[in-house]
Specification:
The complex is a heterodimer. Chain A is of the alpha/beta class. Chain A has a domain of 111 residues: P-loop containing nucleotide triphosphate hydrolases (Rossmann fold), CATH 3.40.50.300. The longest helix of chain A is centred in the last third of the chain and has 18 residues. The radius of gyration of chain A is 15 Å and the shape is globular. Chain B has ten helices and 15 strands. In chain B, helix 1 crosses helix 3, helix 4 crosses helix 6 and helix 7 packs across helix 9. The longest helix of chain B is centred in the first third of the chain and has 19 residues. The relative contact order of chain B is 0.16. The chains are: A alpha/beta, B alpha+beta.
Amino acid sequence: MLVLRPLDKLPGLNTATLLLVGTDDALLQQRADSRLKMDCASELRVHLARSLPLPSNVNRPLVDLLVFVINLHSKYSLQSVEKSLYHVDASFFLGKACFLAAGAGRESHCSVHRNTIMRLAHTYRSPVLFCDLEVEGFRATMAQRLVRMLQICAGHMPSVSA
Amino acid sequence: MRSALGGGLGLQLELHFSAMQKTMDPYDAPESTPRQHPSCSLKEYFLAATPLQRRLESVRKQATSFVPTPPRRRIPQRSQLQEDVDPQKVAFLLHKQWTLYSLTPLYKFSYTNLKEYSRLLSAFITAEKQKGLAVEVGEDCNIKVVFSTLLGVKGTQSDPEAVLVQILSKPQLPSEDREAKALWTGWFCCVFGDGLLETVSEDFTCLPLFLANGAESNTAIIGTWFQKTFDCYFSPLAINAFNLSWMAAMWTACKMDRYVAATEFLWSVPCSPQSLDISYAIHPEDAKALWDSVHRTPGEVTQEEVDLFMDCLSSHFYRHFRIHLSATRLVRVSTSVASAHTDGKIKIICHKYLIGVLAYLTELAIFQIE
């Protein structure tokens, strides 16, 4: 299946899956590690992808939260995220997707203007989180926020839904 | 010449956000200008204290929900040199590498006291230099500081006059006939700084852009003196890749009779062992031809045109070398008009567009201090 759909698989018991779509492998690896350090009530799975569409022969679980990581220092990551957006089903954008703009701390290295990301997020009606992944404190905070969002999307939070 | 509402709308939105953050964070700058007191509540900002925010408010009223701003429009700086600027007088400003700083408004700076300031600054520099050296009393004693105004280096009549500071070495022996050599030159200017001028009170002189050429130690000493005397704050002005691409587009758009240099870009590739640099040079007439094919509205430059211009260059490069330039960082732009480096270094080559280049740099400086 080329297009990623939110409910095409059965949800696993007490598991939540996060899919990070972006280009920078080393960066994402770091983030995945910091995420796994966090305490999470349910079992947390993090999947990384450079871009969509995902190869269809791999057996993967249901994706609860889709995070598009855009590196503000490189226009290329913005272009590849924009291309990946075409392969996502529209119902993902009802709360199960968000944009993460990395590298916002170093203004002097930014090639992409903040407004471009904000316009993109506004078009897709999804939240955008700005962060600087190089700083440990910000990374941990961002991980906490994403875990929170993930738990809501996976339905593990009582009385709160995506 | 600059459009009021359309021009720099994206810029105003950013100012709004950064202004909001300023009220919420603890104020950590050593000197604070009265217009930004920490006790200023968020509500005051929303009541549109400055004209920039007034314009922002009107835009927000038009849009029912928050809609991110339309692509920035900016008029290319094709302004002619002001009549009272003598090209000979500003010739020494050209072809020199200047380091950029942004400067908050100066408190109680007066243009009539320039001789006084020269005297005080000479004494300060001499004292500072002698502090470091124990015994040696060399030619550093024989320095002279000269303050002067640079007439005509400004955008509108309301801009304050540019101020030039030079450290000259006095000739050693009275019999020597040689001219005083400029050891260090620095100048302050404000070109089209309307946004800032309207927000400060009478006691302040706004000269947000500071350019320095010479030894770093001299720059530091002079910076300290200014900070102590006029309660201002210097900070180095870095130019990010986004602004460099705007500069490249605007300077390529300038009509030139004669091209003295090729249009050159320098990209820095972030890779782990050591960073690689990609230098991409284009014949200036080809660059102009490309720009003309992209450019639509005369007299205005839009974000899409800049992006398209840079995308054309990157895709051409990709076709030949299979390297995505968009994944790298633009570090240096060099055209026949001027050349700029991301560390905040600029060299202006063409005197016709001096005011235009300074106007854009002033805007960046104002954005940084706000």
